[in-house]
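To illustrate the input format used throughout this study, we show a single complete record. The first block contains the structure-token representation of the backbone; no residue identities are included at this stage. The design step must infer an amino acid for every position from geometry alone.
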């Protein structure tokens, strides 16, 4: 057991760092959180335009099967009871902001529902392709997995061009492991995107979740750290949730990420919502963006006049949003090398957790779990 005044440093105040901070302060540690940005919360940061809340880094819908995590976050803040739904618009009919929000023709639930696809002109071809699918999709690449799952016609309409826009890579250059959690063909008429029992969005935004997580820690904002920036030896343990290549001054070179530019547009003259669902996917190669989202659907703040729509342009930002899971696994091997290096070079106990430090796409519930587990590991070894 750690003595009450063990000194612990946490690098990063996103959900991973903040949940580690909560666990460590609860265990009686003296916790300092270093955050490179002037605000805490990492990817979950929210802001407002003329009173309308929106998400600076795109939509973050909380969903989990982990009852313990749901109990924890429910103790820390109140939640809007929202169940997420996505519509795909392969013909870009809703891409203009003056399209009426009650328009549903040629919009399709995502994940795809077979019964809705019958209205497509290509339906007889699609039906033939669906009946000749292999029993198990090939895991050779993202493309082979998806084509085996939905057939070539649906792949071309809903997945192929979207994937190319999202990653700037051909779908057959991307590893298959990205596919199973994202691509699904449903026959059950369940229109909700997530199957998780616990879902919601924090009332007033994520700062109402992050704030209580960080309460009791010393938060140092606008403080970018690296292996040489601080006397890490002065701490009994460190939780790193930052990108390790950058923290280690790129000793082995860069780990590549795909960044999205988020464009936020305010519409003053709107009482309710503008889009046909909280998230609209635009899979066609004819438009540069992949998604439009509207937080008013899930913020629970329908009483505020106006609305904000966020449009996502993949590949138009240098931010570290999505790790690139190349087929050969080169990037993940490099990330493992950095993990080993940081464990060797840090002069104190170190735990690596969160999306940046583990070079992985994780959902928010996984980030919280990693923060808690990281804290536990540190408590055992410090
Ligand atoms: C576009 C997008 C949409 C998403 N939507 C969802 C969703 O709908 N549902 C869901 O469950 N998950 C979603 N996620 C995943 C979710 O964002 C992550 O699970 C979560 O943010 C991970 O938290 P984190 O603390 O590990 O990382 P981050 O939130 O990135 O936090 C890391 C923090 O470390 C700071 N930092 C970095 N380097 C340093 C340094 N050297 N020194 C000090 N501080 C540093 C950063 O400024 C940042 O504040 C989405 C992710 C993306 C990219």
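Output of the design step:
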């Amino acid at each position: 057991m750690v003595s009450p005044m063990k000194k612990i440093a946490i690098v990063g105040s996103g959900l991973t760092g903040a949940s580690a901070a909560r666990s460590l302060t609860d265990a009686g540690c003296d916790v300092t959180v270093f955050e490179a940005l002037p605000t805490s919360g990492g990817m979950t940061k929210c802001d407002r335009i003329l009173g309308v809340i929106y998400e600076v880094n795109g939509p973050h819908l909380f969903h989990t099967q982990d009852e313990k995590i749901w109990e924890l976050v429910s103790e820390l803040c109140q939640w809007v009871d929202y169940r997420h739904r996505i519509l795909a618009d392969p013909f870009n009919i809703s891409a203009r902001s003056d399209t009426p929000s009650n328009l549903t023709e040629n919009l399709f639930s995502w994940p795809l529902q077979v019964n809705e696809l019958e209205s497509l002109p290509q339906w007889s071809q699609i039906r033939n392709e669906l009946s000749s699918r292999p029993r198990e999709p090939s895991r050779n690449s993202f493309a082979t997995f998806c084509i085996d799952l939905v057939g070539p016609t649906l792949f071309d309409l809903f997945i192929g061009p979207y994937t190319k826009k999202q990653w700037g890579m051909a779908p057959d250059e991307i590893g298959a492991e990205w596919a199973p959690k994202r691509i699904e063909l449903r026959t059950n008429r369940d229109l909700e995107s997530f199957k998780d029992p616990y879902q919601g969005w924090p009332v007033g935004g994520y700062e109402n979740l992050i704030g209580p997580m960080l309460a009791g820690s010393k938060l140092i904002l606008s403080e970018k750290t690296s292996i040489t920036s601080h006397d890490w030896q002065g701490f009994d343990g460190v939780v790193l949730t930052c990108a390790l290549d950058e923290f280690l001054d790129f000793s082995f070179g860069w780990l590549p990420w795909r960044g999205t530019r988020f464009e936020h547009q305010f519409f003053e003259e709107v009482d309710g919502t503008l889009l046909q669902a909280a998230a609209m996917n635009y899979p066609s190669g004819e438009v540069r963006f992949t998604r439009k989202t509207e937080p008013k659907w899930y913020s629970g703040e329908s009483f505020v006049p106006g609305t904000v729509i966020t449009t996502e342009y993949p590949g138009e930002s240098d931010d570290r949003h999505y790790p690139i899971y190349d087929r050969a696994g080169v990037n993940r091997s490099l990330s493992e090398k950095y993990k080993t290096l940081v464990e060797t070079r840090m002069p104190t106990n170190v735990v690596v957790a969160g999306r940046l430090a583990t070079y992985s796409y994780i959902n928010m519930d996984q980030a919280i779990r990693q923060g808690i587990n990281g804290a536990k590991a540190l408590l055992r070894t410090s």
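Structural context for interpreting the output: The two ends are 9 Å apart (CA to CA). The chain has a mean pLDDT of 95.
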